[in-house]
Please model this.
Amino acid sequence: MSVTMLELDNLEKEFGTSKAVDGVSLTVMKGEFIAIMGPSGCGKTSTLRMIAGLDSPTDGEIRLWGRRINEDPAWKRDAPLVWQNYALFPLMSVRKNVEFGLKQRGLPSARRVKKAEEWMERMGILEFADRRIDQLSGGQRQRVALARALANEPEMLLLDEPLSALDPHLRIKMQAELVRLHRELNITFIYITHSQSEAFAMADRVVVMSGGRIQQVATPQELYRKPANRFVAEFIGGNNLFAGQLHADDRGYRFTTAVRDIVVERPTTLDPNQADCLMVPADRIELDDRRLGHGNEIEACISTIEIMGSTATLHLESDAGEELQVQTSMRELDSRRYLVGAPVVARWQAADSLLLSA
Model:
C-alpha cells in the first residue's frame, strides 16, 4: 500500500520581483522515484533546494510525513543532495569523503570506518579508498558522491542533474545503477534533469515544469501518449503539431489548419472551443508510395534521415511547407529503401490524432 511521504502545498519562491516557483503542489509516495524536468529557468532546481532546506519558501508549505518542515534546517531533513558537480572535497581521500557525513553525525570511529567500507564496496570504489578525488574519473567521482549520501541511510535522496557531466555511455550505465539502488534500498528518489531519456528510463512518475509551474505529472508512457497541453507535447518531442481550429459538420470532426482539413475523432476530455492544436505522434504515421484515399494523407518528400540505433526518424516536407517527422525501424527503412529526396505519402488514422489546448 502506498503511503504519502512528502507533500508540497502551493509552494512559491520569489527572488526580488521574479517568481521562480509559482504555486507548485505535489504529493510523493514512500519509495517512489520522481523525476522533475523542464527547460532552464523553469523552477525545478529551486523546488529541489526548498525540499532540501537550502532555500526557504516565500509561501506555501512543505510537509514530511505530515509534519511541516519549512523552518527545519537541511541537516534535520534526512534528505542528502547529490549535486551536478558532486561537491566532493578534492584534497580528501575517497574514504574520508564517504566518512564525512557519518562523522558529522557523531558515529564512533570503528563503526564509521566499517560503514564507509561497506558502501565503497557496494559502489565498486573500495579499491580507490585511499586515492584523492582529483585522481578519479567522472564516473568514479559520481559513485563516491552516491556512497557519501547513502552511507547515512537516508529515507529520501535528492539528485540535481547528477549524470549531466558524464559521457553518454557512462551515463546509461549509471542510470541502470541508480535504478538498481532505488529498487534495493526502497529510498524515495527526487531527481532533477533536463534529459527526457533519463527521466523516462528511471522514474515512476515525471513532473514537467515551465515558468515555475507544474504542467503535468504522469508516468512516462502517459506523458508521451497523452500530453496535457502543447508545451508538454513540444517538450517531450517525437510529435507532429498542427495549429488550427476544430470544426464539426455532417462528415464528422475536422481540424482545419492553414492548408488542409485533418479528420479527427470527437473530443471526449477537451472543450472543443479550446482545441487549437493537433498532435500526431511520429511513430503513428505510416509511409507509402501512393495515396489510398482513406485516413489522413499528406504528400511530401524526405528532407533528412536521422538514424539512432535500431530506429530512424524521417523528416518530411510537403509542397505547402508543412514539416513532418516519422519514426520507423531500421528494418522498415532497409526494406523500403527510402532515400533523401524521395516522394512519399504520410498516412495516419483519425484515432491517432490528439487534440490539445495551448
Q: What stands out?
A: The chain has nine helices and 21 strands. Residues 238-356 form a domain with the OB fold (Dihydrolipoamide Acetyltransferase, E2P) fold (CATH 2.40.50.100). The radius of gyration is 25 Å.
